[in-house]
Amino acid sequence: MTEPRSTAEAASPTGERLSAISEAVQHDAPRVVLGVGGGIAAYKSCELLRRFTESGHDVTVVPTSSALQFVGAATWSALSGKPVSDQVWDRVHEVPHVRIGQQADLVVVAPTTADLLAKAAHGLADDLLTNTLLTARCPVVLVPAMHTEMWEHPATRANVATLRERGVLVLEPAEGRLTGADTGKGRLPEPAEVFAFCREVLERDGETAQDLEGRHVVVSAGGTREYLDPVRFLGNRSSGLQGYALARAAASRGAKVTLVAANTALADPAGVDVVRVETTAELREAVLGAAAGADAVVMAAAPADFRPLNRSDAKIKKAEDGSAPAIELEQNPDILRELAAERPAGGQVVVGFAAETGDATGSVLDLARAKLARKGCDLLVVNDVSGGAVFGSPDNEAVILESDGSYVEVPHGSKGALAHAIWDRVAACWRAV
């Protein structure tokens, strides 16, 4: 460290900036430290800060000196309502380099540069942010953003592995446009998705915060399309919201997540590898491929049951006499049943979804029990979709059936809450093996 400033300097307006930081813990709002690394993506963290403050979180911004070259302290102060400093010597008698981390409920660093990853992995503490990381005893989320070559460098990968082994949540960067004309993996995930991820982490506390650490899970989401011709298809109303909630919840609990997304319009969840597909055949190939090394597979997608036997290469025209073309259908493969039958040895848990309405042959629960036995999966999440319920809604309610005949009722609530209830049952299946 450098030599401390004089008493006059410590009493200056700059020195006073940290007094409010230590006072930030005087009320019950969740206390979040937003660290900002020195990368071009620092400007995106302004939106992340806004989302935290507008949802009632108490946010202390701790930038690096390099970050202040991209976004000035005045901007962070205006958005957070607090003074901002990167110095450990401001208000030194209040010991800010210790207190900020100790009093936080969550520390999130976005963007996290390669330099910050290295310092965090090796326990270096040469500024206020790295000191905060060392003293934090709350969940820590690091959101890397850098060029692809830097992210893929063996030193960076080793640092990430070390941090994850210690329980730090290091998100996977997104793929897309980087600085200049470069494109690749290393882009900061969308601030809305980083915020959603952090809220998931804050809602989990204690021992359950990292209970999926070291697990690889596969989640499918959305609805497949089966094309009649180049412009028309058979499909369904699945929005993908529940599958995305499952992926986000698993990532927030420490899992490595592969999300196979069929025809959704949703932003990629932060920290999740996304594979995009259209048809049931593509969904099957992607899910079976990812499932080979997975600890759990959750089939939340809605594959089309049928597909046209013959697809027209040209748009089907209207007939002059008003007649409609005859379309012959064939069944699609049963992906869930195939997953359950061909799962690798070692306790892989397979979860299916059943959207039922009930009919003359039985109630929703009766039909679901029969489906669970027929598919051979471990858990079946049953939705009553009478009247179009569930589709496109942010809320859900369900019954989670287990292969031994027991079940758990999940009351009406957010799809995120249902997602966590499902992962709780999956974790219980692992413990029972």
UniProtKB/TrEMBL annotation:
<keyword id="KW-0456">Lyase</keyword>
<dbReference type="GO" id="GO:0015937">
    <property type="term" value="P:coenzyme A biosynthetic process"/>
</dbReference>
<dbReference type="InterPro" id="IPR036551">
    <property type="entry name" value="Flavin_trans-like"/>
</dbReference>
<feature type="binding site">
    <location>
        <position position="305"/>
    </location>
    <ligand>
        <name>CTP</name>
    </ligand>
</feature>
<feature type="binding site">
    <location>
        <position position="371"/>
    </location>
    <ligand>
        <name>CTP</name>
    </ligand>
</feature>
<comment type="function">
    <text>Catalyzes two steps in the biosynthesis of coenzyme A. In the first step cysteine is conjugated to 4'-phosphopantothenate to form 4-phosphopantothenoylcysteine, in the latter compound is decarboxylated to form 4'-phosphopantotheine.</text>
</comment>
<feature type="region of interest" description="Phosphopantothenoylcysteine decarboxylase">
    <location>
        <begin position="1"/>
        <end position="216"/>
    </location>
</feature>
<dbReference type="InterPro" id="IPR035929">
    <property type="entry name" value="CoaB-like_sf"/>
</dbReference>
<comment type="similarity">
    <text>In the C-terminal section; belongs to the PPC synthetase family.</text>
</comment>
<keyword id="KW-0436">Ligase</keyword>
<dbReference type="GO" id="GO:0004632">
    <property type="term" value="F:phosphopantothenate--cysteine ligase activity"/>
</dbReference>
<dbReference type="GO" id="GO:0015941">
    <property type="term" value="P:pantothenate catabolic process"/>
</dbReference>
<dbReference type="Pfam" id="PF02441">
    <property type="entry name" value="Flavoprotein"/>
</dbReference>
<dbReference type="Pfam" id="PF04127">
    <property type="entry name" value="DFP"/>
</dbReference>
<comment type="similarity">
    <text>In the N-terminal section; belongs to the HFCD (homo-oligomeric flavin containing Cys decarboxylase) superfamily.</text>
</comment>
<feature type="binding site">
    <location>
        <position position="375"/>
    </location>
    <ligand>
        <name>CTP</name>
    </ligand>
</feature>
<dbReference type="GO" id="GO:0046872">
    <property type="term" value="F:metal ion binding"/>
</dbReference>
<dbReference type="GO" id="GO:0004633">
    <property type="term" value="F:phosphopantothenoylcysteine decarboxylase activity"/>
</dbReference>
<keyword id="KW-0511">Multifunctional enzyme</keyword>
<feature type="domain" description="DNA/pantothenate metabolism flavoprotein C-terminal">
    <location>
        <begin position="212"/>
        <end position="428"/>
    </location>
</feature>
<keyword id="KW-0460">Magnesium</keyword>
<dbReference type="GO" id="GO:0071513">
    <property type="term" value="C:phosphopantothenoylcysteine decarboxylase complex"/>
</dbReference>
<feature type="domain" description="Flavoprotein">
    <location>
        <begin position="31"/>
        <end position="199"/>
    </location>
</feature>
<dbReference type="GO" id="GO:0010181">
    <property type="term" value="F:FMN binding"/>
</dbReference>
<comment type="pathway">
    <text>Cofactor biosynthesis; coenzyme A biosynthesis; CoA from (R)-pantothenate: step 3/5.</text>
</comment>
<feature type="binding site">
    <location>
        <position position="353"/>
    </location>
    <ligand>
        <name>CTP</name>
    </ligand>
</feature>
<keyword id="KW-0288">FMN</keyword>
<protein>
    <recommendedName>
        <fullName>Coenzyme A biosynthesis bifunctional protein CoaBC</fullName>
        <ecNumber>4.1.1.36</ecNumber>
        <ecNumber>6.3.2.5</ecNumber>
    </recommendedName>
</protein>
<comment type="function">
    <text>Catalyzes two sequential steps in the biosynthesis of coenzyme A. In the first step cysteine is conjugated to 4'-phosphopantothenate to form 4-phosphopantothenoylcysteine. In the second step the latter compound is decarboxylated to form 4'-phosphopantotheine.</text>
</comment>
<dbReference type="InterPro" id="IPR005252">
    <property type="entry name" value="CoaBC"/>
</dbReference>
<keyword id="KW-0479">Metal-binding</keyword>
<feature type="binding site">
    <location>
        <begin position="333"/>
        <end position="336"/>
    </location>
    <ligand>
        <name>CTP</name>
    </ligand>
</feature>
<dbReference type="InterPro" id="IPR003382">
    <property type="entry name" value="Flavoprotein"/>
</dbReference>
<comment type="pathway">
    <text>Cofactor biosynthesis; coenzyme A biosynthesis; CoA from (R)-pantothenate: step 2/5.</text>
</comment>
<feature type="region of interest" description="Phosphopantothenate--cysteine ligase">
    <location>
        <begin position="217"/>
        <end position="433"/>
    </location>
</feature>
<feature type="binding site">
    <location>
        <position position="315"/>
    </location>
    <ligand>
        <name>CTP</name>
    </ligand>
</feature>
<keyword id="KW-0210">Decarboxylase</keyword>
<keyword id="KW-0285">Flavoprotein</keyword>
<dbReference type="InterPro" id="IPR007085">
    <property type="entry name" value="DNA/pantothenate-metab_flavo_C"/>
</dbReference>
